[in-house]
């Protein structure tokens, strides 16, 4: 807590200190006599508490979501002293303090919570009802007087500039007095002069509005008529997601944005009760109340819809605020928790001011930005990665500096938006350009598999593979230096859907194909899958197209071969109808491979939109029926949507738009988190990363941290020893015998003479401090790890294990 705060609040704090519970000191004559000492003790204690709260909230290893204002404009039943503040949600993420809405009382509530106002990073306003921004002026002014020494940005719909200007105008005297009184350099005016960022957004759209050190805030359109604009926000960081709905009814956009949210902060209304209140008002002739109760039902989400939304979106925790009507805890249970939990079995919290949810983030989180430039030196692309997986925002620019596309990635799954050279949003992009790391994988081999079916139904229109779903991965692999083979279900000439080459649909990859004799020859004489051992390859890719709907999902041979490849941990990819090729494959336990896997493929909506429903298998329907966790994106027409999902070694893309991305994510698995180089270098053999099957990954590289005890044959020095926990984890050992009698009865070594005892078969959060349980490592490397399944490992040293491609979860 800052000095000034202490001075301003000293009497308030003094009184509360005296009165507060267990630490209280009665204000007797004796203590009054010791007043200066007591005062100092209180100031120190207060300052320390502020500092502790600050360190806790700004700790980058967790996200803390706090409802700082839980009330709606509706009268609260609480007693006057504890009247909750109106809409206010604070999110502390990666050392940043983000504030969403500042309704009446928000600033007082933040101060009561001892939040570090000087660290306030940015404010986001969902909409311009007064219960969402009435205290914005106070938040701006007081964070400044509490020593905020950076400019504050305030984001909101179009209109935010007018509001900020209004605040500036009404606070002008105050700013000037304080500036003059405390000194121009002490309270510089430049920091109270906040910057408004108006957000322009279309119906159902979303847009990234804030991005700093891996933290991304996306605004999305919600429905709160007649309020326009009305926004919701998502905050993502390190694979975690917080959604703030603002005030809204149920919308498809809200459902989409809430997908897999760790926390959904939502308003809620028990519409049955409000309808009853309307009826009572009517019966008694209270026409004013009747009108209000009637009108508000149309623009908030009801408890039933909210329960269904939270369930379908897979939300983990539902944090309810802005509840109408509010009541005592029993009433809140019956009017909100009970109806919502009919549909939703996740955690439901009825927020009061100060309610919080903490989400741990991975301490070994490694954030990296990869940039790529035009020959002119202009920036071409910027892609953000977390532990080697795309996460955060990726952008590509035209050479003139105009934004070309923007993709929001969450742990390998991404949604893209494209713009033309004048910066106008283009909804119609069939083959978006790939951005991101380029790989050089000489000696590695890829196999692309296509359909052999050439007509829709028995004498129907000509079809086959959709060309770009074969040509795109082919050239992406080829340009990375790989050998690429083309196979099909029946072998021989591959049928290509003639629509592939129609104007507007043909891709640059297709044009290259049509002039490429070697590739043409490969597709005219494709290998028959029966004659190939898939495990000879480093990547297997299944192309789609309408033809694939007739054979990929029915081929027992394909099923067996994919099963074998999966067993050998070979990265497997598919786009569009290609995902059907997984249907007959089995996992290591003999269960259908896709069951419980996150997977995508063409949507039923796209199939309907293109009017080709006669095909026997539709990926969305079939994958869901087989128990897959089917995911997808949507657009006006789904052929324009793009989505890819990574589940371990299986990378799938929704349709033709995802070919290049899927190919690259597969190559990322092969290359590991290292050794990639620019494509130019790949063509000059000398400096390239030379892929060698015999050295896929050195164990030493994977578990670098474990070397601490096993680098030499010498006995480790004391400083190298790990702490030993009561279950025996960390005890120094040479063999398993040295660990016997402990729960940690396995001696984990990495080639050296000494190792340490650990506990195999641990579960999340089961290892004692400072150890963490590393589990669910990717199949790709599981067999190379020095432990089976899971083990307790030193928490600070597991970065290599959590990074791709090892991709263990350590917690
Ligand atoms: Zn509202
Ligand atoms: Zn409201």
Short précis:
The chain has 811 residues and is an alpha/beta fold. Helix 13 runs parallel beside helix 20 (659-671). The longest helix is centred in the first third of the chain and has 23 residues, at 35-57.
Write out key terms for the chains shown:
Metallo-beta-lactamase, Chain A; seven-stranded mixed β-sheet; disordered N terminus; 24 helices; alpha/beta; 811 residues; single chain
Describe the protein.
- With about 800 residues, the chain is an alpha/beta fold.
- The protein folds into five domains: about 55 residues, no CATH class; about 300 residues, Ribonuclease Z/Hydroxyacylglutathione hydrolase-like (Metallo-beta-lactamase, Chain A), CATH 3.60.15; about 55 residues; about 240 residues, Rossmann fold; about 110 residues, no CATH class.
- The chain is built from 24 helices and 36 strands.
- The strands form seven sheets. Strands 6-5-4-3-2-1-14 form a seven-stranded mixed β-sheet.
- It is globular, with a radius of gyration of 30 Å.
- The protein binds zinc ion (2 copies).
- The site of one zinc ion has 7 residues, from helix 5.
């Amino acid at each position: 807590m800052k000095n000034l705060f202490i001075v301003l609040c000293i009497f308030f704090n003094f009184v509360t200190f005296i009165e507060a519970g267990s630490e209280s000191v009665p204000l007797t004559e004796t203590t009054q006599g010791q007043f200066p000492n007591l005062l100092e003790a209180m100031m120190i204690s207060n300052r320390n508490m502020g500092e502790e709260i600050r360190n806790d909230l700004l700790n980058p290893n967790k996200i803390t979501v706090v409802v700082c204002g839980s009330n709606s404009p509706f009268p609260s039943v609480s007693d006057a002293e504890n009247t909750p503040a109106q809409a206010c949600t604070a999110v502390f993420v990666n050392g940043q303090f983000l504030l969403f809405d500042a309704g009446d009382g928000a600033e007082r509530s933040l101060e009561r919570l001892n939040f570090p106002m000087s660290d306030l990073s940015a404010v986001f306003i969902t909409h311009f009802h007064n219960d969402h921004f009435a205290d914005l002026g106070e938040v701006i002014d007081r964070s400044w007087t509490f020593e905020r020494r950076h400019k504050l940005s305030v984001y909101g719909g179009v209109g935010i500039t007018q509001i900020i200007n209004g605040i500036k105008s009404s606070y002008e005297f105050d700013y000037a007095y304080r500036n003059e009184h405390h000194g121009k350099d002490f309270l510089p005016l430049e920091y109270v002069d906040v910057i408004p960022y108006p957000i322009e957004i279309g119906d159902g759209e979303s847009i990234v509005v804030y991005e700093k050190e891996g933290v991304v805030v996306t605004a999305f359109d919600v429905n709160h008529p007649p309020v326009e604009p009305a926004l919701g926000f998502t905050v993502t960081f390190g694979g975690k997601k917080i959604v703030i709905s603002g005030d809204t009814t149920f919308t498809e956009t809200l459902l989409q944005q809430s997908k897999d949210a760790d926390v959904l902060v939502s308003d809620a209304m028990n519409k049955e009760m409000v309808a009853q209140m309307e009826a009572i008002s009517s019966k008694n002739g209270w026409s004013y109340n009747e009108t209000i109760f009637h009108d508000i039902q149309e623009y908030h989400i009801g408890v039933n819809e909210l329960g269904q939304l939270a369930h379908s979106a897979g939300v983990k925790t539902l944090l309810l605020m802005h509840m109408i009507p509010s009541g005592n805890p029993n009433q809140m249970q019956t009017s909100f928790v009970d109806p919502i939990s009919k549909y939703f079995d996740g955690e439901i919290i009825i927020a009061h001011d100060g309610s919080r949810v903490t989400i741990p983030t991975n301490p070994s989180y490694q954030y990296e930005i990869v940039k790529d430039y035009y020959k002119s030196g202009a920036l071409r692309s910027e892609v953000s990665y977390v532990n080697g997986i795309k996460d955060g925002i990726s952008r590509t620019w035209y050479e003139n500096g105009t934004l070309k596309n923007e993709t929001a990635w969450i742990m390998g799954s991404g949604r893209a938006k494209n713009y033309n050279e004048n910066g106008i949003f283009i909804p119609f992009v069939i083959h978006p350009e790939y951005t991101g790391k380029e790989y050089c994988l000489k000696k590695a081999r890829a196999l692309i598999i296509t359909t052999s079916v050439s007509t829709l139904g028995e004498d129907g229109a000509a079809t086959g593979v959709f060309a770009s779903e074969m040509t795109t991965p082919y050239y992406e692999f080829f340009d990375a230096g790989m050998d690429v083979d083309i196979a099909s279900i029946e072998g021989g000439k591959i049928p290509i859907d003639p629509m592939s080459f129609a104007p507007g649909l043909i891709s640059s990859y297709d044009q290259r194909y049509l002039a490429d004799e070697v590739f043409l020859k490969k597709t005219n004489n494709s290998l028959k899958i029966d004659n190939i051992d898939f495990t000879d390859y480093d990547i297997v890719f299944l192309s789609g197209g309408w033809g694939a709907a007739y054979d990929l999902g029915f081929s027992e041979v394909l099923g067996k071969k994919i099963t074998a490849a999966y067993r050998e941990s070979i990265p497997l990819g598919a786009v569009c109808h290609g995902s059907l090729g997984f249907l007959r494959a089995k996992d290591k336990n003999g269960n259908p491979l896709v069951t419980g896997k996150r997977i995508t493929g063409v949507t039923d909506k796209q199939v309907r939109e293109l009017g080709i429903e006669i095909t026997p298998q539709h990926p969305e329907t079939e994958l869901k029926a087989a128990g897959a966790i089917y995911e997808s994106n949507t657009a006006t027409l789904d052929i324009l949507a793009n989505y890819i999902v990574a589940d371990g070694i299986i990378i799938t893309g929704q349709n033709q738009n995802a070919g290049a991305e899927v190919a690259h994510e597969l190559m990322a698995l092969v290359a590991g988190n290292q050794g990639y180089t620019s494509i130019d270098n790949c063509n000059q053999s000398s400096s390239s990363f030379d892929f060698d099957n015999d050295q896929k990954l050195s164990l030493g590289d994977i578990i670098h941290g474990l070397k601490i005890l096993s680098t030499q044959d010498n006995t480790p020095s004391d400083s190298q020893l790990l702490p030993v926990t009561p279950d025996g984890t960390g005890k120094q050992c040479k063999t398993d015998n040295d660990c016997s009698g402990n729960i940690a009865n396995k001696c984990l070594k990495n080639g050296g003479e000494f190792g340490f005892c650990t506990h195999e078969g641990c579960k999340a959060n089961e290892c004692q401090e400072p150890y963490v349980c590393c589990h669910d490592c990717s199949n790709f490397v599981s067999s190379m790890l020095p432990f089976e399944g899971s083990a307790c490992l030193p928490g600070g040293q597991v970065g290599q294990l959590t990074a791709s491609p090892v991709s263990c979860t350590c917690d």
